[in-house]
């Protein structure tokens, strides 16, 4: 399974001013601005990965292997790896080696339905037959920063502060992992994978 960023979000979930206010830094001081923006990018990427969300709208491409078609129910579904999902722009199937020509084939939009939101799910009207892999290009994320749930913004600010205060990967022989408070804030959005 691979998840590839095709088009990144065009804005950041929090502004530099919000970060400085949270860290109680002087808004006029600009020496650390670049570093603070790097912390935000790292924290955003880590939270998106941990919680399975996209803060702001971005386009992603997910490629995954399918189980044997014979085991799929008549109406199969797949939960997409990022949410909230707003659109599926392309869904391709790669036929199995013994049944096709080895080229990706587009699945017509009439053959599936997107159930948008949290989580985003694709419902197949008929199970994909004799396909080895599936590639879905989709949009996920909130359209504006103001729409992002407050606990996720708080988790982002706390993780940025964590990075700002702890510059080393180890402190007192302990790994500087994601703080428990951040884990608790993202817990409702996290997906458990079996």
Overview of the structural elements:
- The protein starts with a strand and ends in an 8-residue tail after the last helix.
- Helix 2 packs across helix 3.
- The strands form 3 sheets. The chain has a 5-stranded antiparallel β-sheet, with no helix packed on it. It has a 3-stranded antiparallel β-sheet with strand order 3-7-6, with no helix packed on it.
- By secondary structure, the protein is α+β, with helices and mostly antiparallel strands.
- A hairpin with a 5-residue loop joins strand 6 (112-115) and strand 7 (121-124).
- The protein is 26% helix and 27% strand.
- The chain is elongated and about 60 Å long.
- The protein has 2 domains: 12-55 and 145-189, Phage gp6-like head-tail connector protein (Hypothetical protein yqbg, Orthogonal Bundle); 58-140, no CATH class.
- It contains 4 helices and 10 strands; from the N terminus they run βααβββββββαββα.
- Helical stretch tally: 4
Shape: elongated
CATH superfamily of the largest domain: Phage gp6-like head-tail connector protein
Strand content: 25-35%
First-to-last CA distance: 14 Å
Largest sheet features: 5 strands, antiparallel
Q: Remind me, CATH topology of the largest domain?
A: Hypothetical protein yqbg
Counting structural domains, the number is 2
Give the overall pLDDT as a whole number.
87
Weakly predicted, low-confidence segments: none
Number of strands: 10
CATH architecture of the largest domain: Orthogonal Bundle
Whole-angstrom Rg: 20 Å
Strands ordered across the widest β-sheet: 1-2-8-4-5
Helix content: 25-40%
CATH class of the largest domain: Mainly Alpha
Which structural category do the helix and sheet elements fall into? alpha+beta
Secondary-structure element order, N to C: EHHEEEEEEEHEEH
């Amino acid at each position: 399974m691979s998840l590839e960023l095709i088009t990144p979000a065009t804005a950041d979930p929090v502004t530099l001013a919000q970060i400085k206010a949270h860290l109680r830094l002087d808004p006029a001081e600009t020496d650390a601005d670049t570093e603070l923006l790097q912390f935000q990018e790292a924290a955003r990427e880590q939270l998106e990965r941990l919680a399975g969300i996209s803060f702001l709208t971005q386009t992603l491409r997910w490629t995954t292997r399918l189980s044997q078609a014979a085991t799929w129910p008549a109406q199969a579904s797949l939960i997409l790896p990022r949410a909230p999902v707003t659109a599926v722009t392309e869904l391709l199937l790669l036929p199995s080696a013994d049944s096709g020509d080895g080229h990706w084939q587009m699945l017509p939009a009439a053959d599936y339905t997107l159930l948008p939101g949290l989580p985003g799910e694709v419902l197949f009207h008929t199970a994909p037959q004799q396909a080895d892999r599936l590639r879905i290009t989709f949009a996920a994320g909130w359209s504006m920063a103001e729409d992002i749930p407050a606990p996720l913004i708080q988790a982002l600010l706390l993780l940025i502060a964590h990075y700002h205060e702890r510059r080393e990967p180890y402190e007192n022989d302990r790994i500087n992992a994601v703080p428990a408070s951040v884990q608790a804030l993202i817990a409702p959005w996290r997906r458990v994978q079996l």
